[in-house]
Write a structure and sequence with these properties.
This protein has 224 residues and is mainly α. It contains eleven helices and no strands. The longest helix is centred in the middle third of the chain and has 24 residues.
């Protein structure tokens, strides 16, 4: 799968950026160091000026690629969900048993992320931490409905639909497949956050992963 991923380009809605960062070495450096800087500072303290200083370039060069840091966050989170979608597609392509396919899908989407070196300019571990800590800031805005119409969240929605269809394949009579799918995706981020910061509020730990919890939850719901 790693070899296949190396030859793939994750396609992101071109409304999110002014110039495709994948089209130049500077653009890829902006993405690479933007991920590391947001992970270090947090999104609220991150600025394009600081990013320009990190890559030893003018702040204006970053603005040639992204209109503002909000759209930069949307770009990064879209890339993350697109990467997860590719992993999901490859990992489940040859699984024919619906239950086994669903469990594998949940494992892929909720597990602890490891850097796979498939994309040299992307630190997937740092990006995963950003998604856990900052993803909600990409859509908890007054502009969310307009941005949704522009297709800013299409990858996340498509991934949720894939999972919803797998849930329906296991139990076509289950009345809430979309709600369960979106709960698994959003809930996994929350459980990872709780595991790292509020351990008394979750049963997930080094011994019990969010993947185990959501597989258990889904199995019991669909078999009841």
């Amino acid at each position: 799968m790693d070899e296949l991923l190396r030859n793939l380009k994750i396609t992101i809605n071109d409304n999110v950026y002014l110039k495709d960062p994948e089209s130049s070495s500077l653009g890829r450096r902006i993405v690479e160091h933007g991920i590391l800087l947001i992970n270090d500072l947090g999104f609220d303290n991150f600025t394009f000026k600081k990013l320009g200083e990190r890559i030893e370039s003018n702040e204006s060069s970053v603005y040639r690629y992204f209109e503002n840091k909000h759209k930069f966050l949307i770009y990064l989170t879209n890339w993350y969900w697109g990467w997860k979608e590719y992993q999901l597609a490859f990992a489940t392509a040859n699984i024919h048993d619906p239950k086994e396919k669903l469990e594998q899908a949940i494992e892929i989407l909720t597990r602890e992320v490891e850097e796979d070196h498939s994309f040299n300019h992307i630190n997937e571990v740092a990006l995963n931490k950003i998604v856990i800590n900052e993803y909600s800031k990409s859509y908890l805005t007054k502009e969310v409905d307009d941005e949704n119409k522009e297709g800013y969240f299409v990858i996340y929605k498509r991934l949720t639909t894939r999972l919803k269809e797998m849930i329906a394949d296991v139990n076509e009579g289950y009345p809430y497949p979309a709600s369960l799918a979106s709960t698994i995706l959003a809930g996994s981020l929350h459980q990872h956050f709780l595991k790292d910061h509020f351990t008394s509020l979750t049963d997930c730990s080094k011994k019990t992963s969010p993947s185990q919890y959501f597989i258990h939850l889904t199995s019991n719901l669909l078999n009841s």
